[in-house]
Amino acid sequence: MERVRIGIVGMGHRGVAWINTIRLEPLAEVVAVCERLPVRLEQGAVRAGLGADRAFAELDDMLTCSEVDAVAVNVEPEYIASVAERSLAAGKHVISEVPLAYTLEDCWRVVLATERSGLVFAMAEQRSYMPFVRAWRQLIQEGLLGKPLYGEAQYFHGLVNERVYLDEATGREISVEEAQGNPHARKNRPWNLVHPLWYSPHSLGPLLAVLGGRVTEVSCMSTRKQSYYREFMPIPDIEVAIMKHDDDCILRIACGFQSPSASPHHWQHLIGTLGEVETSRRLTAGSGQGGGSLLWLANHYTPGRSEVDWGFSEYQRGLPGAAVSGHGGSDLYPLHDFVECVLQGKTPLVDVYRAAEIAGPSVIAGHSADHGGRLLPVPDFRPGVHRPAGQAPAGVAL
Ligand SMILES: NC(=O)c1ccc[n+]([C@@H]2O[C@H](COP(=O)([O-])OP(=O)(O)OC[C@H]3O[C@@H](n4cnc5c(N)ncnc54)[C@H](O)[C@@H]3O)[C@@H](O)[C@H]2O)c1
């Protein structure tokens, strides 16, 4: 195999963005698209430059196509696991969108399907590849930050009105006002995000990429189960989880997706025994990817936090062409990693275990919030003496 031939499932706005991202990767190409909604299928095929013979309404039909080596899963989060499982069982490598799953059973579904297939599974969490993550990992490896003690991450990204409903006739996302009296309007994906913490991959993902290891226990609290800002949405405005990491580090993860939020929407912070690092909390015009970020090192004659700018440089280069990919030039990185892993038999940075180690604690945070913040354990998704690879754990019938 010289190039990975990819079929994309789901032609919502993210699936369409994937067509553009795959065009930036010389070692991959889009050879098929799959979408349930006829109008989106037609629009997606046109965008990908594919004929009707490569545009599938049914996943199983696309999976029988021998020209498809790998499947990019761009469906709603509650369907990611089943589409990934079916694709792996059909012999296709899989790269899935975040957040993998909204249930523990679905986390196990993808772990077991990957183990049983022996194929590559990657979750395309792009912030795990950003320069600040690489820099922080290096600072820890070189001992400059000391032992990590406390990590924080938050993602507040208010849902814009134009995305609350979907018009199934046009394939467009629409506002509440546009949905009124429209027989083709149905609730869009955000209605199923019952717990904001379920969408934590861009927060917990980068922290685990820095720290390695996994979360073992979680407690979570939320505001009431009805947005104060958008009263008709039965979803809390904010959830905050405290997580215990297996290297004796405490993590705080906060998420909210209803009320308006200031840019930058993401923020990460890490304290070690010998220093502190954080990403920028303010808009920085004209700077690199990390302008306004802070660094303090106890043993390096730095009396306080100083501004730094984590970004690729002429000495530590990013991927050619990535800068024009989505999400500040980060979208190409997980795809490139996946393609290299398929072609060279390697393991991606966010492999199936890391994906489950991000989604699992987040799902459990939702259960904790439903039970007044009760401290709950997180299962170990990796195989070992307690569970041979490919075998479901006790109590999971898969
Ligand atoms: N990584 C990121 O930064 C990022 C950004 C946005 C969205 N996402 C993720 O991307 C995914 C897609 O997001 P979106 O906003 O495009 O969602 P969307 O709901 O607009 O689109 C999903 C599409 O998948 C189709 N679909 C579902 N199941 C299918 C099946 N079995 N066969 C064929 N088509 C099927 C639906 O009809 C729908 O059109 C979500 O999981 C979301 O969480 C990630």
Please give the share of residues in helix.
25-40%
Kindly report the average pLDDT value: 96
Number of DSSP strands? 18
- Portion of residues in beta strands equals 15-25%
Mind telling me the CATH class of the domain at 128-319?
A: Alpha Beta
Biggest sheet details: 9 strands, mixed
Task: Itemize the secondary structure elements and their pairings.
Layout: E1 4-9, H1 13-23, E2 28-34, H2 38-48, E3 55-56, H3 59-63, E4 70-73, H4 77-89, E5 93-96, H5 104-117, E6 121-123, H6 131-141, E7 148-156, E8 165-167, E9 173-174, H7 176-179, E10 185-187, H8 201-211, E11 215-222, E12 239-245, E13 249-256, E14 266-272, E15 275-278, E16 293-297, E17 306-308, H9 326-329, H10 332-344, H11 352-370, E18 376-377
Parallel strand pairs: 1-2, 1-4, 2-3, 4-5, 5-6, 7-13
Antiparallel strand pairs: 7-14, 8-9, 8-10, 11-12, 11-18, 12-13, 14-15, 15-16, 16-17
Helix pairs in contact: 4-5, 5-11, 6-8, 8-11
Bound molecules: nicotinamide-adenine-dinucleotide.
The site of nicotinamide-adenine-dinucleotide has 26 residues, from α1 and α4.
Written account of the structure:
- With 398 residues, the chain is α/β, with parallel strands linked by helices.
- It has a domain at 128-319: Dihydrodipicolinate Reductase, domain 2, CATH 3.30.360.
- Helix content is 29%, strand content 22%.
- The chain contains eleven helices and 18 strands.
- The protein has helices spanning 13-23, 38-48, 59-63, 77-89, 104-117, 131-141, 176-179, 201-211, 326-329, 332-344, 352-370; strands at 4-9, 28-34, 55-56, 70-73, 93-96, 121-123, 148-156, 165-167, 173-174, 185-187, 215-222, 239-245, 249-256, 266-272, 275-278, 293-297, 306-308, 376-377.
- The strands form three sheets. A nine-stranded mixed sheet has the order 17-16-15-14-7-13-12-11-18, covered by helices on one side.
- A hairpin with a 3-residue loop joins strand 12 (239-245) and strand 13 (249-256).
- Helix 5 (104-117) runs antiparallel to helix 11, helix 6 (131-141) runs parallel beside helix 8 (201-211) and helix 8 crosses helix 11.
- It is globular.
- The two termini are 32 Å apart.
- The model has no long low-confidence stretch (mean pLDDT 96).
